[in-house]
Amino acid sequence: MSEHIATLTWERGDAAFDYKTYSRNHTWDFGHSLTVTASAAPAFLGDESKIDPEQAFVASLSSCHMLTFLAIASMRGITVERYVDRAVGHLEKNESRKPVITRVDLYPEITFADGQTPDAAALEKLHHLAHAECFLANSVKCEIVTHLPDS
After folding, report:
1. Domain 53-146: CATH class, spelled out
2. Burial of 58 (0-12, 13-18, 19+ CB in 10 A)
3. What gap in Å lies between CA 25 and CA 40, rounded to an integer?
4. Rounded CA separation 58/73 (Å)
5. Most C-beta atoms within 10 A of its C-beta, which of 5, 40, 91, 109?
6. Arithmetic mean of pLDDT over the chain
7. C-beta separation of 53 from 42 below 8 A
8. Would you say 146 and 131 are in contact if contact means Cβ atoms under 8 Å apart?
9. 3-class DSSP state of 7
10. Hey, where are the domains in the chain?
11. What is the DSSP string of 39-87?
């Protein structure tokens, strides 16, 4: 159907190449003059001022859920004014003792146009459908949980 390209570049430079000291900083080039400097997470000797792959993974899942939710809402004539999600990924060891993202918790806060706020049951159904239709949610093994605000 489509291809999605990112070019990753890392260079050692003048630094020594031993595990504790080599730079984890690298770039992700998405084309269209969009380049992001990334690094490992600080726990893995990365630069805390840069995005790390785990954060990018969590952000991608959150973004896909939101975009799918917005598409569904728009097709149903429900106007969304604002959508904010504080997504949290949990890096834990799996049954093989390998670190993996085991769960991503989504905490969307959505503002709808006046008079268009769905009731709790309808909102839950919209999120369930968004999860079921999200390309990325269908591509990963980790659990994705959407936490809705108490009504």
Report:
1. alpha beta
2. buried
3. 7
4. 22
5. 40
6. 96
7. no
8. yes
9. strand
10. 7-44, 53-146
11. ---GGGT--TTSB-HHHHHHHHHHHHHHHHHHHHHHHTTPPEEEEEE--
User: Cβ contacts of residue 103 below 8 Å, gap of 6+?
Assistant: 89, 90, 142, 143, 144, 145
Name which of 1, 47, 50 is nearest 22 in CA terms: 47
- 28 DSSP assignment: E
Give the Cα separation of 51 and 40 in Å (integer).
Answer: 8
pLDDT in tens, 102-124: 999 999 999 999 999 999 999 99
pLDDT at 151 over 80: no
The β-bridge relationship of strands 7-9 and 80-85 is unpaired
How far is residue 44 from each of residues 11, 41, 98, measured CA to CA in Å? Answer: 18, 5, 14
* Nearest one of 111, 55, 118, 110 to 87, comparing CA atoms: 55
Distance CA 44, CA 37 (A): 16
Tokens 């085991």 locate to 102
User: Which pLDDT value is given to residue 149?
Assistant: 85
Decide if 40 contacts 52 (C-beta within 8 A).
yes
- Rounded CA-CA distance 140/64 in Å is 12
Single-letter code of the amino acid located at 82: R
- pTM value > 0.90: yes
Say if residues 87 and 105 touch (Cβ distance below 8 Å): yes
